[in-house]
Amino acid sequence: MNNINVNKDLEKVSMFSEKVAKIKNELKKDVVGQGEIIDGVIIAIVAGGNVLLEGVPGVGKTRLVRSLGRVLSLPFSRIQFTPDLMPSDVTGANVVEKDENGKLNTSFRKGPIFANLVLADEINRATPKTQSAMLEVMQEHKVTVGNDVHKINEPFFVLATENPIEQDGTYPLPEAQMDRFMFKLIVNFPSDEDLIDIVKMTQKTMDETASAVINGEEILEMRRLASEVLITDEILAYAIRLVSNTHPELSKSCPVTKKYVKYGASPRAAQALVTCAKVKALMDGRYNVAYDDIDALAFPVLRHRMKVNFTAVNDKLGVDDVISMIIKETKKVR
Hints:
Elements: H1 2-27, H2 35-47, E1 51-54, H3 61-71, E2 76-80, H4 87-91, E3 92-98, E4 104-110, E5 117-121, H5 128-140, E6 142-145, E7 148-151, E8 157-162, H6 175-178, E9 183-186, H7 192-204, H8 216-227, H9 233-244, H10 255-260, E10 261-263, H11 267-283, H12 291-302, E11 307-308, H13 310-314, H14 319-331
Helix pairs in contact: 2-11, 9-11, 9-12, 11-12, 12-14
């Protein structure tokens, strides 16, 4: 029986890896380079989280999400955030309409948030009230209008973008709301080689050419499989210790944290780290989580959940530099 179970597990892992490979191959038809970003987005979708993308305009963020919608065979919606955008413009609202008999009836008109894949473009341009409405839906996967609750169809995934170089007319997301994002991914400017390929691709067509290779039900099945991936007590303890090590107020924190960190990550970081590590293990063809999975995902999970202090800025250290140092210190006692 044990051999039968092992063979079944190996078969499931193989099928999972094949599906991910198909998704990547189709995305490559529309998106040049950005391998880490694509991996991060796929992990977040399977894990059931949302992603915050930071990058300058024109690096393919919108194209990536549109292409994802085609590949995953899911409805796609784009919301362009502006200072005059109201919460009802995102979630929808009750409207009064006349029926054929002239009687007035109230009905709910759904907003653009009612899609499986939602691109929240320049989310930091909306006012805090609209941001809160958006982030509430991201967390609860439902919209409440009056006494009525309207559920969002699963799988539901929000990819929000921020432009790091513009500050005028923006409303930075509060730390508590940043915590709602599973990952923060940094989209870097493409290399010269990738830029050549991008120009060649767009000379042929500006439209996405990727084809559907998977559907929503298959994604939910992949999510269920990922939840069953094994993680040993030692690796789980390491992940928890890594998150705890971001808190300078704790006596057991490493010296690097006490020197460079202003405040640490929330318990959601530990949940995201373990959940996403299971997905990454399956993507790599394994049915168990490794230490390397935790280390690799620490950057996208922690970089928006912790804040460095003035000492780090003065020493010209970014948040990723500090995370790297914390990982090294945490490894010493595992």
